[in-house]
Amino acid sequence: MWRDEGVWIGLGVTLITLVAALVMHRIFVKILKQPAPDQREELSKNE
Description:
There is one protein chain. The chain has helices at residues 5-33, 37-46. The model has no long low-confidence stretch (mean pLDDT 85). It is built from two helices and no strands. The N and C termini lie far apart (64 Å). It is mainly α. The protein has one domain.
């Protein structure tokens, strides 16, 4: 089973997909934790 090149291609594609999903998750969480654009303007005016 491990000598078949199709297995390695499948594992490689799966690994790339998982890494891309983790990176996208971190980016989305970072964006969602930022304040809304309206709040950012108010924060800068109050400072």
